[in-house]
Design goal:
heterodimer, A: 258 residues, alpha/beta, globular, B: 325 residues, 2 domains, Rossmann-like_a/b/a_fold (chain A), transport (chain A), electron transport (chain A)
């Protein structure tokens, strides 16, 4: 397998700390209330991490760097990434108040800046973060760096300096071939992430984190979007529960759905 | 004072998605949304862009159509589309660039925005004014209104939130747009599309979905039997897609497709946040589940606590019998 690969590749995997996907957030005072919520690694980023370490296990990648941009507390997602097998990590520290207003464009600009330093052959991101639901950081990064992009990736094959990506599209799948370096965004279908093992969690504590202050990078991270209001969606009221199929059919008939 | 009139000063460009020779429903919804900010230009690109441009010129609310002919645009590759969109924006000074929220639009719009240093606004559900847009965050649990300070607004529009523009009634001018050179960084290899003659999930008036309660892929047959007389599309939850019961493109939810049909029937689905995010704007929701505490019952208009393997075939029989009369 690795004979066909002319050189080992370097993978940069981007991780975001988000409110756990099982938490139903509440809106209060024109803001999403996230204090005291359980936080986790964004589920799509877990998949990106898994893919990166599988590339290492297949002897395609020789180094995997995990990157996060966030508050001091975001360090925990980097420890998780390293417990899973990432070699080292970069933490771009953002002050507490500023982290929430950092937009995908600002994130992509910071990553663009890191590109010159880290020089990865493959950027691996999740297809979207489950808090902002923007789903555009990978595309923005690819656009800023003018690199090819493989979004909604459900299969990734690296061969002869090319990355063949199977993408989940509306009507099925599409296969594209990208030259390296490239930017990939993981879909759910890409793999099943593993759990970190306790000894690895202990070892991860000793792995290096390169901590940088966002202000020192000289990147424009000012938001382009101003949030005017945040509201809860209109609540749907529970309707009627019926006992028999006949009744169910009659109700649906009355509702004119068929 | 400017604000009051500025709505008609916008110039919108809609990036058309052509699916098997036809303008996609998502594009028609984007055209309706775009008409709210000003005159609508539509950009169509591909080997057969000329033919598609003729069809787009007839679409209601379209003022002009730009056709860029080039085989390198035929497969929707963002590496090719982004420079083309850039060239069109620079040449004609569009204030808004829109596309439908589809795999095509989500892939292309942010890349085009990056080239212009703009922050894209994905999955817009409402346009308040030319700078202000509404979108859902946290799996639809928060509705956020944002104002953009960008010179050009790059948005994808959620198809279920805007009426589709009628396919006829328009009389737009058609002009050629010089194609940009092929980038050579990405190459289309092949499409592996599911061939199905069934109604499309995103556009069907009725959707019947199955969850873990279906137990296996074969059992989806009973949903298809009910779907046939109703001309309904069949959807699924992430759990059954992950289990390999049905293909991925059937997934409804935060990470799958967003649907808002007239009628949504959920069979054996508990109603997790991530699934509900993709269908809660459906007009009438009915739920069949053996678990009376399933969260889905809290949002369903009609619910029955019973075995779907009994209820679904019985409903199919009744609908067939009523149809035969």
């Amino acid at each position: 397998m690795f004979r066909s690969v002319p050189h080992f590749v370097k993978v940069a995997v981007c991780v975001k700390r988000v409110v756990d996907y099982t938490v139903k957030v509440r809106v209060k005072d024109n803001k999403v209330q996230t204090a005291n919520s359980k936080m986790s690694v964004n589920p799509f980023d877990e998949i990106a991490i898994e893919e990166a370490i599988q590339l290492k296990e297949k002897k395609i990648a020789d180094e995997v760097v995990a990157i996060t941009i966030g508050t001091k507390k975001a360090e925990e997602v980097l420890r998780t990434a390293m417990a899973l097998g990432c070699d080292k990590a970069v933490h771009v520290v953002v002050p507490d108040g500023a982290a929430d207003s950092m937009e995908p464009l600002a994130i992509a600009r910071v990553l663009q800046k890191l590109h010159d330093e880290i020089k990865p052959d493959i950027w691996l991101l999740g297809k979207q973060a489950v808090d902002g639901d923007f789903g555009c950081t990978a595309q923005l990064l690819a656009g800023l760096l003018d690199l090819p992009q493989g979004t909604f990736a459900s299969k990734v094959e690296v061969r002869d300096n090319k990355v063949t990506v199977t993408r989940e599209v509306d009507a099925g799948r599409q296969v594209v071939e990208l030259s390296m370096p490239c930017v990939l965004a993981a879909d759910l279908r890409l793999n099943t992430p593993r759990f970190p093992k306790l000894p690895n969690i202990m070892k991860a504590r000793k792995k290096p984190i390169d901590s940088k202050d966002v202000a020192a990078l000289g990147v424009d991270i000012a938001p382009h979007l101003t949030t005017e209001t945040v509201t809860e969606p209109p609540t749907r009221k529970a309707g009627v529960k019926v006992k028999t199929v006949d009744e169910f059919y009659e109700k649906l008939r009355e509702a004119k759905v068929f | 004072m400017l604000r009051a009139t500025a709505l008609s000063l916008g110039r919108a460009l809609v990036i058309a998605e052509i699916v098997s020779g036809k303008v996609s429903p998502a594009t028609l919804s984007a055209i309706t949304a775009a008409s709210k900010v000003g005159p609508v230009a539509v950009l169509v690109a591909g080997a057969s862009a000329k033919d598609a441009a003729q069809a787009l010129a007839k679409v209601e609310s379209v003022a002009s159509v730009l056709a860029a002919v080039g085989e390198h645009y035929s497969h929707g590759l963002p590496e090719e589309y982004a420079p083309l969109i850039d060239a069109a924006v620079k040449a004609n000074g569009y204030t808004h660039v829109f596309a439908g929220t589809s795999a095509f639009g989500k892939n292309i719009i942010p890349r085009a925005a990056a080239r212009h240093g703009c922050m894209p606004i994905p999955e817009v559900t409402e346009i308040i004014d030319e700078n202000t847009f509404v979108r859902h965050t946290y799996a639809g649990n928060a509705i956020t209104t944002v104002r953009s300070s960008d010179k050009v607004k790059y948005c994808t529009l959620r198809g279920t939130a805007f009426e589709r523009a009628a396919a006829d009634g328009g009389s737009a001018t058609v002009a050629d747009l010089a194609p940009t050179p092929a980038s050579g960084k990405a190459r289309f290899v092949e499409d592996l599309l599911s061939t199905s003659d069934k109604p499309d999930l995103m556009t069907a008036a009725s959707v019947i979905s199955g969850g873990r309660g279906l137990k296996n892929g074969d059992n989806f047959k009973i949903l298809e039997e009910l779907a046939a007389p109703l001309h309904a599309a069949v959807g699924a939850t992430r759990a059954v897609v992950d289990a390999g019961y049905v293909p991925n493109e059937m997934q409804v939810g935060q990470t799958g497709k967003t649907v808002a049909p007239n009628f949504y029937l959920a069979c054996g689905i508990s109603g997790a946040i991530q699934h509900v995010a993709g269908m809660k704007d459906s007009k009438v929701i009915a739920v069949i589940n053996t678990d009376e505490d399933a969260p889905f019952f809290q949002i369903a208009d009609y619910g029955i606590v019973d075995d779907l393997f009994k209820v679904v075939p019985a409903l199919t029989e009744k609908i067939k019998a009523a149809g035969a009369k």
